[in-house]
Structures are given as C-alpha cells and as structure tokens.
Specification:
The structure is a homotetramer of 472-residue chains. Chain A is built from 17 helices and 23 strands. With 472 residues, chain A is α+β, with helices and mostly antiparallel strands. Chain A has two domains: 232 residues, Glutamine Phosphoribosylpyrophosphate, subunit 1, domain 1; 186 residues, Rossmann fold. In chain A, the strands form six sheets. Chain A has a seven-stranded antiparallel sheet with strand order 3-2-4-1-10-9-11. In chain A, helix 9 crosses helix 10 and helix 9 packs antiparallel against helix 15. Chains in contact: A-B, A-D, B-C, C-D. Chains B and C meet through strand 5, helix 4 and helix 5 of B and strand 5 and helix 5 of C.
Chain lengths: 472, 472, 472, 472
C-alpha cells in the first residue's frame, strides 16, 4: 500500500531529544517536550523514566500525541526522564529501531537517546561483533551503548568519554541511569542541544521551542564536546577533548528547526528572514507578488518581500491535516502528489508575475509540481528563488538527503534545473549570501552539502558509507 | 479523561458535504473531496456510494485520512457517492450522530448529508413522534428523511419539495438514491453549495477548494431554494419557492471557509484581506509589527499590514501537529491551553509594540491567553484588532457559538473586553467596514450574530431552541 | 479474506438476551450474563442501561470479553440494563444490525433485544414503509419497535400487546425504558426466557446458566404469551392471548443451549444423555469405543456408552482456542477445515471399531471430514450415530439452517448419506426416540425441522421467506 | 486493572516451539504449528523466517490467531522459519521478553527460540556483563545468544556446543540462520522436542499434535543432548556430551501437553488414564459419580471411572470463551474466580456422592472453590482425587510453580489440605502409582516437584534462584 508520508522531496529530517532531571512527573514534561519537537521526527517516539529504583520504558511507532495516552504516561513514574522522536523514512521503519535504547549492563540499566549520524558506526560494529557482541537493531546508535558497556574504565563518565573518543560523526546524546542524566554534544557540535531550567528541574532539549511550551527558562547551549552530568549533587561539566573546528549544521537554520527556536545562538526565523533579504540580490527580477512555499518558506519570503518591496502574498495554502499518513486511493485517480499538501489560490495568482520562495531543492520533483500548479492557476510568470545554495553534496551527519545521483544540483546546472522546473527564472542564494546572513559565527558551520568540504571524514569512507543509510 | 480538542474558544465549526455523479470510482473522489473539506468538521466522516443496485456506507468517528483505508474505500463501489464531515464538539459526539444518514423507505434506500441547522426540528420531531415515528439519533437532520418518507407525494422530487416546505433554518443538502444525486440549498441560502465538473462527472461541494484538489472545474453555485437533480438523463433544476431575502452566512468569509475557496461568488482570502484593510481605520494606533493569530488571522493581518504600512511578522507560530486529540497529562502540569497550539517567538516580539490581528472573539479566554503570551515574550505594547464586529448574538443556523451568556461581546463593552484581555487597545471592525469589504452583495448576508436581526425566526422560538444544542 | 468462523457446517446458532432490574451496577451484571450466554452469539454484543433519567448504549462487533472494557462499562450507569449477543454469520454482519436497538419515540427512549425470527417481518415492513416509516437496519426486529411506536394505544403495555398481535414467528423479547423492564415470550413459546432473582434485583435471561454465574436464583420460566413488566412497584404479568399450541424449539435441547442450563423445564445435559441412550436401539452395532464429537456430542455419547456398555473415549480433541477468527494462510496450505477445531488421537483409535456420536448433520461436509480423520488415524471401522432425527426441513424461527437444497437429509436417504460420509454404518435417532427422551412435554415442541409440520405458517409464505435470511 | 488471566492456581505453563526447514511458505506452516501449541503459552507469540538472504521477524503480545493476520504472514517470506509461544504470567509480561530472539552477530543474523529454564542464567549474565555485554530483556534465554556470539570457536555448531557446555538447566532450543535450522535438547532432556517430515520439509516441534494439524509424519524425538543441524545438505546430528541421567519432566504427562500428543514416547491421554486407574487404589471410596475438572482432569477421570466402575459424568462445565482476558467489573461484584471458567450442573450433582478428579493442586484455592461449588450444587458428599503426588517442591526448570511457601502440599499434610478444601476425603496418587503408570521409562524422569531430588543443582543455588522468576 503506497502511502504519501514523503510526498515532498524534502527528506531533510532529523531526530529530537528531550530530557528532564528533578521534576516530580518527569515523563509528563518529557511528553510535552517531545510534542514540541514533533517536527524533528514523526516515525516513532519513546520515553524512559526513572524513579531511582528502576527504569521504565514506553516506545512505539507513531506520533507523540497518539502514542502517549494517559495510561501509558502513568506507567512512567519518577523524576528523571529522557525522550526521543525518530524521523520518518519509508522502508526501514521498525519498532526495533525506535529510541531511547534501554539496556542492562554491568552497572545496571542505562538508556540513551541520540540525534545525529555516526560515520564510523559500521566499522565499530564489525569490531564489536568480532569480539562477540550481539546487535538487536540496525541503528548506528546501538554501538554507543556497546562501547560504554565494554569500556575498561570505571565510572560512567569515564566510560562515556572512552566511548566518545571512538565515535566519529554527529551525536547529540542524552544518557540516563537510575539517578543521573547526562547530556553530550559531539566535539564538532553538529547538532544543537540546549539547557534550561524549570523551578529546580533541569531540562535538556534539541530546540528551545520545547522550553517555551513548558515555561522553562533557557540557560545556555551545551558546548561542542561538552559532557554535562546532572545528579542529585547538581551539574558538572566535562570537556575532555582538544577543541576542534566546529561544524554546526547549517540546515538547522535553513529547514530543520522550528522558526520560534533559538539554535546555535540565533533565532531561526530571523536567520531565515536574513537569507530571504540577501536572496533579493542574487538575480533581481520584477514581480507582482512574493509567494512562500508554506510553511518553511514563509520567513525567507517575508525577508524577500521586505527587502524588495514586492508584496508578500499567501498564494499557496497548506492543508492542515497533512502530516498524518494519506492513503492514495485506486490506480485511476492516483498521483495527487503535492496537491494533497498545497493548493494554489487562483484568485491571487492569475495574471500575476509570481516569485516563489522556497528553502531548498533536493530532487526537484516537488518544486516542478509547484511551478506547474502556479502556472495552471493563471500566473503570467513564475520565478523561483531558493534561500540556500545549490545542494550539491550528500550529507553523512544526519540529514536524510538522497545519494549524489539523486541530488538535482549535483548533476545539473542552475539553468538546467530552471528548465526542469519549467520556471521563468531560478536563483539560489550564494554561499556568500548564506554566510553573511548567519554572520561571524558562520565559520563554525558545516557547509559540506553546498561545497563538499566534509569535516574530518576521508573521501573513501564517505563513499563507502553513502550506501548504508543508517541514521537516527 | 480531559482532552484538548477544543482548547480554543473558537467553536465556530461546520459540516462539509461532497457528492459525485458519474465517476467510475465515485467514493475515491469523495474521499479526496472530504479530505479537502476536513476543516469543516473533524468529529466524524462518512461516505455512501451506489453502484445502481445497492447503497454502501462507511461512516466512522475520526479524521478522513484515518477512517478511509484502502480496504474501506474498496467496500464503496459505484459511480455515485456522497460524503459528510461532521464538526467536533465535546459530549454529544457519538457514532449514531454521524452522517450521511442511510435509510430504507417505501421507494428503496436513500442517503442524506446535511450542512446547516434547522430551527424547527424539535417541533417537527414531536409531531412525527406523535404519529408513531421512531428516531435513532439526536440530529436535527433525521427529521428530513422522515418528512421525505412520510410525504404523500409520489416521486422523490415532489416529496423533497414537500419536506422542504416544512423546514425552517439552514440546510445545504445532498440526497442520493440508487441512481440519482440531488443537491439542495435552502431558500435563504445560508450555507454554500457549488457545482463542478470533472470530465463527464458532476460534483457538488461545500467549497470550491475540493474542486481544485481533484482538478475539477467550477461551474456555478447552486441558487438559494434550488433543487438540482442529477441522473443518467443529466441535470434538472427545480425552484419551487417564492424568492425570499437571501441570508448567506457571513462567517463563511470571516472564519469557516478555506482562504483558497471561492464562496458566495468571492474569494475568501481576498475578502479577508479587505476586512483587514478596513480594520486599519477603526482605531489607528502606532505599532512596530502586525502579527496574525495563525492561521485564520493571516489574510486580515496581511491586509492590515499593507494598508497601514506596518510590517507583517509571524510572531506567533502554530504547532502543525495540533488538530488531533491532545491528552493533557497529570493534574500538576495541566492547563497548557493555547500554548499547545501556539507559541510566541520572543526574538520577534521583545521590546516591540505588537498589533495582533484575529478574526473574532467568542468567549475571550483564548484571546486573553494570547495577549498574555505576547506580553510575556517581551512586547512593550499589545494591541488587538478583530476583523469582524463584536459577536453579540448566538447563531441558530449552524455555527456552534455558545449561548448568549457565554458570548463576551453580548455582555461586555469593548472597553471591558479590552481590560479582560489585558490588551493596551482593542478594536473590532465596524458593521460598515464589514459590509463595505463584502461589497454590494452584502445585503444578501445574515448578520444576525452581529446585529441580532435573525431572518424569519420569532424570538420565542429562538430562546426555546437555544437550550438544545443539536446541530449538524 | 477467507476466515474460518464457520468451518463446521453447524450453523445452528442463536441470540442470547439478558436483563436486570434493580441492581446498583446493572450493566456489570448484564456483562457477566452475556458472557455466560456467549455460545448463543459471537458476532456482536451490546448493553443498554438506564439510570432513570437517560438510556446509555454500548454496542459493538465482537466477543463480550473483548467489547466490554472497564471504561466502556463505566459509561453504562444505572440500575436497569438489557443486553444482547448476536450470532455470527458471514456476509450480513454489520454494526447496524447489532442489538439492543435503541430508539426515541413519543414516550421517550426505548431499547429492545430480540431472540428469535419473525416470519411476517417483510410484510409488516412493507406496510410500515407505505405509511412513511424509515428503516435503519435489515433486522426483522426493527419492525417491532416501529409497531410499538406507531400503535394507537396509550400506555406501553397496551402498545406492546398491540404490536405482538401483529407479529408471527419466534420472539423472546426484552424491552426497557427509563424506568421499566419488560420480558416477553411469543404465544407459541419458541425460545426460552427465564426469570431469576439476585437479592432484590430481578433477572431475565435466555438460559439459566447465566443465573448460576451471578449466583442468582431461578424463579420460573416465562410462559408462552406472557408479558412480564417489572418496575419500581414490582412485577406484573399480562397474558392477553388465547392459549395456542406450544411450539418450543427442540434444537435448544439438541444443540443450542449449554448443558448446564435448565431449559423448558428440563436439564439440557440430562435430555442429551437420554437421547444418547435411546440412540443405542436404532441400529445396534458392535464397537470398541464410543467417541463423541466434542463438545456438543459429549452428553449423548455418555448416554450411549452407559446404555450400550461400550467404553466412552475422548478420541477427538477440540482445540480450546477456536471460537475466535482463524485466518487461513496462503493458497497452498489452505483447507484445514475441521482439523483446526478437532484432532484425532491416533493412539486411541488405531485398530479400533469406533462409534462416533454427534448431535446432528446439516450439510454433511464436516461429518465426512471427521469420519475420514478417524479412519486415517487407523480406525478399523467407523460407525456414525446422530442423536436427533434427519434434519429434512429448513427452520424459519431462528435456526440458521441452510435452504432445503443444502440440507443433506432433505435430499438423500440415510444410506446415501452414510456412503457420502464414508462411514461403515450410520443411524439417526428416530422421532419416537426423540419424543420419548423429552417425555410427556414433547407435545409442546416444534419438530418441523424433522417432520415439516410448521406451526401456523402457510407453505407459500415459508417458501417466500426462505430467500430472505434475516434473523436475530 | 485487574484481569483474570490466571484465575486458576494452575500456573504450570510452558513455552512451545516449532521450526520448519525446506517448505515454500515456512512461516505459514509455523503459524499453524504455533496454533496447535497455543496451550503451551498465551502471552506472546513470534515467528522469524528466512529466504536465504535475510531474516524477517514478527513478534507480538497476544494469541497466535490474533497476531498473525494474513498481511503479517506475508511479511515473513522464505523456506525456513521458527516460532515461539510464550506462556502467560501477570506482571513481567513485556514485548521485550517475547521470542524468538533475533540478533546480529559476527556471522550474521541468528534467531533463537527457547523452551525451558536455565538455572545458572544469572551467574552467566553477571559474567558477560562484567566483560562488557549489554542485555535488552530479562529472559534467561538471552544469555544463550550472547554465549554463542562470544564463543572463540569457529563454525556455528562448535559455538553452540561451547555455549551448551556452560548452560545448566532445561533447554529445548531452535536456532536458525539464513540457511540452517538447528534443534537442540539439553543433555538431561527436560523438555520434549520431536522431529517430523512433511514431503521434503523437516519439522521440529515441542509436541506431536502440531504434526497432526499440518499432516506431517512423526519421525522421532530428539535425544537428550542431541544437536540436530538441518541445511540444504540434509540432517546431521551431533552428540558431544557424555550421557547423563535423563530428567524428563513428568508434568508434561500430568498437565502440560495436549492429550493427543505423544511425548517422551508415550501418548499423553493414555498415561493420564493409567494415572486415573491407579488412583482408584489410593483411598477407595463409595461414590455415585466421577466428575473431572475439565479439561485436564478428563482422561484421569475416565481411567478412574473405568477402573472403579463408578459412572463418569460431566458435572462441571467449562466456559469455551475463557482463555482470553476477562475484565472483572466493579468492586461490588468482583471475585467470580473459578466461576468464570467452570459451572456446576446442579441437576447432575444434587443428592449425589461426588468424586472429583483433578490433575494437581498447587495453592489449593481453586480446588477449594470447586469443592464449595459442587457442594452448593447439592452434592451429598465431595471426594477429591488428584492424579499426581503432592506437589511439595518448587520447580526450577520451567514450570511456573510458586515458591515453597505458597505450595500447599509443602506446608500442609493431606488431612490439612482436605480440611482446607472442605472435602469429605482427599487422596493423591502415590509416587509408586505414578511411576507404575509411566512404566519402565519412569527412571528417566525428573520427579523433583514430588520428592525434592533435583537433578544436578545444588540446594544453595536453588534457593537463590527461587527468588528470581525468570523463565521462558
């Protein structure tokens, strides 16, 4: 049965993690946190809690609000909890790959939630299997718990550091035991992880929008390479790694994060508006209206409209009820594609020169359908503007981009893409336009998907890994 | 268990109806139509189809995309179908009240889908029960099928006319038998009903956005009082009623309909923008940004921003995953209210003079929470602008407004409401501003919720009916 | 998808009804009662309760223990309740045909549960439809509520009597309103209905085994034609009908009822043993072991063994987990048929002369498979004995027998059947053997399925009705 | 929510395992096998299949027929499969403890299904954890896959032998990889495992009744200590262990196995009848009828009746629909206990001297309720006979008996038990009566639950282990 979960060719999706220490109903708070982070993963969701004596787990396929009934939340007692939303793909979607991972090892029960993608997981896994380890999932994250359990170090923090030294790639982690919560960002800082406070409770979250919902206060972002341990004695930070070049993921700004989150020190909506402002100067064109592809294109379109003076208009309407599985009916009326998600408002578009703003193009198929839809609605001209540079290289750190051969910008020139989209003009934001919008901190970002400068991974490995497709 | 399906005090919701004649997989098309009309009702959904020999029904609680699995659609064969989305309330929500209603009567099986609210249903029901009729639901719509079945007239159209002559109130209807489809708008034209064409198939739909999804062409709106019969011989219209004053529901423009629909001859988004433009002149104020309450407030806010020159900004973010049931966890962290649906983006609001645009205020509780949220986010001033006049009178024709005592504008002055909302200023659109935005056709609208001029219903009846709360 | 709910050709199944008046948690008691009566119907189950103000209904497809969760029972408050188990057929199985039926009529809400089959339902329905009535189901039972609602009589009992005078066929009924419970047996007494007491509460039940579970005391059977009204003033009986010849269904003894029930004044197990004793004399044969087809054949086999002196042996084992839906896997290993339900114990059968005792043969296909299974298990001879006469005529009063053409005994001689079964010998109990086992009351039984003497229905009607297949 | 899954104090339950090699739709056959073995475990069920390239798993809580929809079976392709039914307990019932266990290790994917209980699992687990292993379940079975994966041996059989040498306790195992199936019985042969053939396919099953259903032929039982490897080259047996004293579980005869299975070389029904025959001589008493506690007491009661000449009668009726979860309603009508499962037929029991035959007594609470129920039904005398010796010692090899303190026979004399049961007399079968019924092979059985002679486990370990409660 063909579903339409991924009718857009936006496959950039990610996981969300959320943890609480010291709140009487930690699982309930985690539930709310995961609800705010739903956009980072819709495939599965799970919470593990601790009452100091035992760890309790509820993990299931589906959306946060569907999974966590009151009955289920009631089975998660205690004042410590971590949660995880896993993103949605077709195919490898199985309960065994849902997180948090809960295991018993020599020091008792341990749970782990991982956002990011390890680039040397296969290598580590083979090494561990050769020593007699068994694996229960296809997640790269499973190697982390093995490394912690197999470490010769004594206390948990030492074991964690030992494990981290063997990992390469992106990993924001939450680890919990019966009486402690540990937050970790990898030394290159690929993925965000923020610290907040609600009364006496401490919160760790992928994005700050989850702090807003529960009315917690933002304290600070964890630093790249930082290990923050929280237990009944308070917080303690460990920074065992030599500082490396930071490689924060620029796509958190472009697409992943919610606009009302502050990520890597900046407000996402404002960065997106700045991207849109800069985009005006790439290939100026006369147009009657600026139309965003909702919802991710809205802030850049607002920036574009403000900078250009061309009126902003909601010429494309998004169906609110998309997000859940949509089953295409019989053969004869199939292929509704993007129409299920978006509809063009003819009365706004007809006879107009329309400038569409979107955040990125992956395969190009969706953008092409949007252009055609706008033209059928009566637009006189259709200009496409993309608020990020051409996506020419696959990502190995957690973005589910297709392989090189599927990335249209890896294989076609901008003119060819424009032709494929059937647009009148097409322009991308330049790399300069991107870094200027981000500001001075832009040096701390990974731009590999635009320029191929992969941080720290040798090319050979990359190609090898490209065939795998395991991420979390 | 307390759910949050109705966390907003916007209870203005409605039913959606959709019918097809002459399409090989009529139920599949109806499924797509209902999907487009999901915003008109989320409580239950149903489709009845005909293959010329028999009528097949699938009716269930829940959302269209959840109910209609491929297996279920396969149980709905044939070239004629009608569907219905029922709106969501707390309490009386039961499967027996879902539509379409399917019955057997002396001329065989008949299905009916109703959008609107009858004001004399109780009276008719009592009369029918006295004659020996039994009722299976609490829907006012059930009296219509009784009246048709009990009519002494011969053919179906005559029976339908006979029934219509006894009905008072709002009713856009779809009626189907084994081999015909009938579309009806009540003589006052309260609710919309449009006719479209897809190849040789004819479509009837509450809103035109459903035509867009299936790539059908809009033909025309049904006229008030028109009965349109479609069978294998084509279409035939019956207009048995003396023309009455038209009473189209103005809330279809203000809130109900999708912005990309053309309703009562105008594009909803454009009317809303015009409302926003006119709103600028009600109580001009200096502000830094215009912020819509998403999503219904967006078009009016765009109009306001364009007219006033104050920048438009998405300072409130709507959670995409709301719309499904959200279960509030334990006592201690309850009452998230509007925060589950909306979040304020502090970075955009702090230090600003914020002008919030919303479409209406019912009880005022949600608006108050929004004002407080914006203020907590750091706004220096909070001005509220409503793109419709004060909602002072309850509706008896299908809008689920609370009773008189719950309508804040029926009991408080604008100043008092402003104080309750904790806003700096509050202004509503004037009735003149409203009618001017709608244009010359504004005479054909029911404005009773603003001015109490109820079309054709005596006051006594109204008060009597107010206690009932049965609608569809 | 082919299921195996009816892998036996025993289609004799029935409905079960249970009612309570005056017990604080009447729905809970009804739940237990329905659980005891599960053997009378596995398709759907429902309970309607009253707290004196309102009627509450929970009706669903499936088994009693699956349907009635604690949450669902909690939605059925009050001290009066009736419940219904509907038997399972393939095809017409739909929720709209589940009972109790709950309607509103001129005197308020009324619920009805029906066991039996009306033979003039179609005729009445046509008459009612001609007068303007609408029907929501295909159940014959629906005409009863229509007749009560449409009666010109004043109080409910008079309306019920009025309705009963128009009904022909089998009907044991429970009717309830907000504050009364009415039990009814049709004037010919086709189906059982017993009265019991638990403390101050009064119970009405299809079979006495339900009284045992709740530790209620049996008071008496309702009389044919009796209408027993229970309200806060106590019980009152109405017997408005001239006594007619009684036509109790003999299959309640042969197959339907649980062996631990007392039905029509006798213990079912003891009657079945007597049938088995008498069967010994029909065609005496030398055999090594008497083997019942479990579970319904056990009592007759015990009677046979005791009377004949041949050892009783459990040579066929019934799978406990049958009763629920069993999905046959792929094509290649299909057609397990009776093997899913029964297995032959080779060690007991091999080399033996086996005498199988079963209660009846309908189509013969199951019996044939059993004979073949026993022979493959190594039996030297296989003799089949049936503890009822040849089933030569279809039933119109509630037993779901196939039409005349499918009844093997209606079309073949005993010798031909024996040959078809591949048995060595076959004998049925004679009509005399049957009536002798029942004793003097045997005159009060309907034996039409054996001798074609249908009580009170003209042959023409019967044939006409045979095509319908509506029962409850 | 309190359920009644274990309302009897018969907690003797077990797991069932079934494997297929070389059948085109191996999973479908496994489904049928598990269906036949449902009595050995109702908590969860799972199947793993292989198409030579990959292993596919479907594991879920619930009953076989509910879990394996056609859709789910279609996700299990290939010609090799193993399946597992897990028994039902309250509390520790979780999906993570369901089997088969599927892991990846250095040689690829491996699945394992285990029937039995290891007595040194905790010790092994601690040792493995100390070396860095992580555990995902609380099943003792999980240590087996760890030992295989961690073995320094090369090929799989050598690793399996290596692992087996470290295990102590009961284990019948099925192990499969992409292209082989391995069957194992522990050196003491606690649990059964039989080999059968269907065409060219080979079958391994806990009981032979599963062979009957699929019409496979029984070949032989696996020998204690035998490792049977099946791959495309055929079968090969390994017997690496020095022969030890055999310790077959006598409770397979007394209670676990289906009567139509041949276990440990004998037919279960016939052994049970022999137990019943011998029981006559323990404490002869005059009685009017012999009544079994259905269904497990039936064969022994038949043996008793035949030997004693006292008539056999089905005085207790078992509700067919028990086996599924039964939810007890509200407080006030709780504690139906055994009445939900059994009902006494008063008409058979009243005024009689009744001799009840049951297979065993664990806590005594159920037996007491049965005696009381029979007495309330009017029995003049109630004599209880148990077809096994007093159960005085807990089992550590897979029978879920309560601890020493809960076993009534470990703490009370027969007279005291008789008094507790409120029976007139009580007699157990003697150990001699038991061994005589089993015959010469009785030396190969573990009788520890009757005489405390635990095979090979030191007392200290036993006591330590008794607190754990992990079994499979």
């Amino acid at each position: 049965m063909e579903t339409m979960e991924t009718i857009e060719d936006k496959l950039h999706e990610e996981c969300g993690i959320f943890g609480v220490f010291g709140y009487p109903e930690a699982a309930n708070l985690t539930y709310l946190g995961l609800y705010s982070l739903q956009h980072r993963g819709q495939e599965s969701s799970g919470i593990v809690s601790s009452d100091g004596r035992e760890l309790y787990a509820e993990v299931s396929m589906g959306l946060v609000a569907d999974i966590f009934t009151r009955e289920r939340l009631a089975r998660l007692p205690g004042g410590i909890a971590i949660g995880h939303n896993r993103y949605s793909t077709t195919g490898s979607s199985q309960l065994k790959n849902a997180q948090p991972i809960l295991v018993d090892f020599s020091q008792g029960p341990l749970a782990l939630a991982h956002n990011g993608n390890l680039v040397n997981a296969t290598e580590i896994r083979k090494r561990l299997e050769a020593k007699g380890s068994i694996f229960r999932s296809t997640m790269d994250s499973e190697v982390i718990v093995h490394l912690i359990a197999a470490s010769r170090e004594g206390d948990l923090i030492s074991r964690v550091i030992d494990a981290m030294q063997q990992l390469e790639g992106a990993f924001s982690l939450l680890i919990m035991t019966k009486n402690q919560l540990i937050g970790i960002r990898d030394p290159q800082g690929f993925r965000p992880l923020s610290l907040g406070r609600l009364g006496n409770a401490l919160i760790l979250t992928s994005e700050t929008c989850a702090l807003d919902l529960i009315e917690a206060h933002f304290i600070r972002d964890l630093e790249p390479g930082e290990i923050l341990r929280i237990d009944q004695n308070g917080m303690e930070s460990f920074r065992p790694f030599t500082p490396r070049k930071c490689s924060q993921c620029v796509f958190e700004f472009i697409y992943f994060s919610r606009p009302d989150s502050d990520v890597f020190g900046q407000n996402v909506h404002l960065v997106r508006k700045a991207l849109g402002r800069n985009l005006v100067h790439e290939l100026p064109v006369e147009a009657d209206i600026v139309v965003p592809v909702p919802d991710s294109g809205v802030p850049a379109a607002l920036g574009y409209a403000e900078e250009s003076g061309i009126p902003f208009e909601m010429g494309l309407i998004r169906n609110h009820y998309v997000g859940r599985t949509f089953i295409e009916p019989q053969q004869s009326i199939r292929h509704f594609g993007v129409k299920i998600k978006l509809n063009a408002n003819k009365q706004l578009l007809k006879g107009k020169r329309v400038l569409i703003v979107d955040d990125s193009i992956v395969r190009g198929t969706t953008s092409r359908k949007i252009v055609q839809m706008v033209r059928r609605a009566g637009a006189k001209e259709v200009h496409v503007r993309i608020s990020s540079p051409p996506n020419t290289h696959p990502c190995f750190y957690g973005i589910d981009t297709p392989t090189h051969s599927e990335l249209i910008a890896a294989n076609c020139s901008v003119e060819e893409i424009c032709q494929y989209l059937t647009a009148d003009t097409l322009a991308y934001l330049s790399l300069d336009g991107l870094t200027q919008a981000i500001g001075p901190s832009s040096e701390d970002f990974c731009l590999a998907c635009f320029n191929g400068n992969y941080p720290a991974v040798k090319l050979l490995e990359r190609l090898e890994l490209a065939g795998e497709g395991r991420r979390s």
